[in-house]
Amino acid sequence: MAALTPISRKPLSMVLPTVAAAGGFLGMFVGAGQGSALLGILIGAALMAALAWVYITVLDNERVARWITILGMGVIGFLFAGFTGLIVGLLAGWFFAFFIFWLYEGRYRQRLLPYLTGQQVFGHYLFRVICGAIFVFLITPILVVLPLSFNAQDFFTFTPEMLRLDPEGYSLKHYRDFFTNNEWQRSFKNSLIIAPIATIISVSLGTLAAIGLSQSHVPGRRAIMGILISPMIVPLIISATGMFFFYSDIGRFMEGTLGMDKNFVGYIKVVLAHAVLGIPFVIITVTATLVGFDRSLTRAAANMGAGPVRTFFKIQMPLILPGVISGGLFAFITSFDEVVVVLFVGSASQKTLPWQMFTGLREQISPTILAVATILVVISIALLTTVELLRRRSERLRGLSPA
User: CATH homologous superfamily for 181-397?
Assistant: First the structure.
């Protein structure tokens, strides 16, 4: 456990530039919303540096400074952006009042080891700031799409009513359009048909391949592994082009020689193509699970008379099941969100949900896309949460983390 170090006040030469950098970062977002990010950076940096100087040299009272900053920035936010700006301003005011005295009084070192140098402390917090910035830039587009899907108008931007949090600016009309429109429902049903079947094929073949490649006596294991996971590495447009020519010949054979229905053949081609894209995810996750697998268990089962199939389902499968399910979830997400391959391989009868979204952006600019995107985000979050829970369960079963 890190020892708590006594509070020692830091010089202004360190505090002011750091606070100015944080103020410039906030000002960049505010300035971008007002049309000039550079001006926002300059004003934000200068304002926060001046505020820190006044608080440290003149006021020197954290509680009073906190209330002044919270109320002041709340009022400024309300004047610029209404109720939404008020909330952002209050949160920003609380953060900067805390941040200024947190730096000045040296409280940032309290939970760190006392013998760390200033450079090591800086690297520690710089790493956290970089990770936080990456997270913000990755999550911001999702946070923008979610409220826009409830827009009462057919716009892809926030209306004044939405910014004021006026109930009249929000509506479920785009969700109703998704669930009542025949085009959207047909594409949604196609995705629900294609993705599960492709996932089953991916899990079956990928699991068998991972188990086979985990055997030390298999010749050329690395080369075979590289070939099997190549769909994950090769650019998707190249894979889609190759699949187009390959499955075209298969489709002509199935329709002309076997006399199969054209639409049914189209579904088969799309399912097989998506299964190819999902197999690498299953191989990687199952292979990672097999790394900690105790092979003496299968040998013991064989010595007791169990055949290979019984040994697999009774001994091996329960232990590698978290990896199998994780790979299956990744394969399902890949198939459910994929649009490039289905454009090459499929036809209008196999139009999936991402294909319909692409068409909506290119031809109609339909705001229903925002509602669909929100639904897909919710589904993806639920599936990824399941993957994380299975990963933790797998670690507990393998003794890598406490129960």
Answer: MetI-like (1.10.3720.10)
